[in-house]
């Protein structure tokens, strides 16, 4: 292990390298045991991340801040008299700020158009719920589909380790897009299968109450996964291997988080209206 690290990182002369190699046994007493149980876990969470993916997402920063660093932008002269400017609200008097481009992470942009140009009314309605077109556009920005999955791994690690909230928000968006891509279940089952596998490892690393919405009894991941499970189960031509993996994953999250995916969502339940008879 030490010999491998030495040859990869050490830039000394051949004589210095030979001396260090011969002295490795003396160095062992100063080294701590490597946590191999953490190493396996790290591999499962970062298996797809490559140097190319890191360079694209971290195109500018050498350090990733937990909170977005804001910088002032030039104030545009409004041409208003000083008296009127003073009467403006405090928010207007504050110098406008924007995220520091030197520290911002370069996440894959989520397309604004969710349906192809020239789509019929029926297709517009379809793609408002099916995110396959959006997912396909995002995949086209990478050399291989695995790289978008690598981004999903990276943003999860940014939040879990670095507490970068913007990364968590992007992770939520990516997860929703993968889960709601109904067409991709048939067109690219291996991609959805790999996504479920990555999500499985991520779900092992978060507390059981992590995704609970403090405002409502439901959380976004229950709703999102319910869509994914329905897309797979209701597809008569679904790949059997994908269906098996989905069922295993559903059983895992149901047991770990005590989520009920079979219960009818409150917003889809029939409304009961009590009729009051009007006696004339």
Automatic annotation (TrEMBL):
Species this protein is from: Daphnia magna
InterPro entries: AAR2, AAR2_C, AAR2_C_sf, Aar2_N, AAR2_N_sf
UniProt name for this protein: Protein AAR2 homolog
Any GO BP annotation: spliceosomal tri-snRNP complex assembly
Keywords noted in UniProt: mRNA processing, mRNA splicing, Spliceosome
Pfam families associated with the record: AAR2 (PF05282), AAR2_1st (PF20981)
Family label: Belongs to the AAR2 family.
Origin: domain of life: Eukaryota
Cellular component GO terms held in the UniProt record: spliceosomal complex
Subunit structure as annotated in this protein's UniProt entry: Interacts with PRPF8 (via RNase H homology domain). Component of a U5 snRNP complex that contains PRPF8.
Free-text function comment from the UniProt entry: Component of the U5 snRNP complex that is required for spliceosome assembly and for pre-mRNA splicing.
Record CDD domains: Aar2_C
């Amino acid at each position: 292990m030490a010999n491998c690290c030495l040859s990869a990182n050490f830039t000394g002369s051949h004589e210095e390298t030979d001396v260090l190699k011969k002295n490795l046994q003396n160095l062992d007493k100063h080294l701590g045991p490597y946590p191999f149980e953490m190493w396996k876990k790290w591999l499962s969470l970062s298996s797809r991340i490559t140097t190319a993916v890191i360079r694209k997402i971290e195109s500018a920063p050498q350090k990733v801040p937990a909170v977005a660093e804001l910088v002032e932008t030039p104030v545009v002269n409004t041409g208003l008299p000083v008296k009127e400017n003073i009467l403006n609200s405090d928010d207007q008097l504050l110098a406008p700020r924007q995220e520091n481009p030197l520290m911002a992470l370069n996440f894959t942009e989520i397309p604004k158009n969710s349906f192809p140009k020239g789509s019929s009314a029926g297709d517009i309605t379809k793609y408002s719920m099916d995110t396959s077109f959006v997912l396909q556009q995002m995949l086209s920005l990478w050399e291989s589909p695995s790289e978008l999955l690598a981004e999903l791994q990276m943003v999860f690690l940014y939040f879990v380790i670095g507490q970068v909230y913007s990364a968590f928000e992007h992770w939520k968006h990516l997860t929703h897009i993968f889960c709601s891509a109904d067409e991709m279940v048939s067109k690219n089952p291996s991609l959805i299968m790999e996504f479920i596998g990555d999500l499985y490892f991520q779900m092992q690393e978060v507390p059981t109450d992590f995704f609970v919405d403090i405002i409502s009894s439901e959380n976004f991941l229950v709703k999102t996964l319910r869509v994914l499970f329905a897309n797979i189960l209701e597809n008569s031509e679904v790949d059997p291997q994908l269906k098996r993996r989905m069922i295993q994953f559903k059983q895992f999250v149901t047991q770990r988080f005590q989520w009920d995916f079979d219960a009818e969502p409150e917003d889809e339940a029939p409304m009961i209206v009590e009729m009051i008879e009007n006696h004339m």
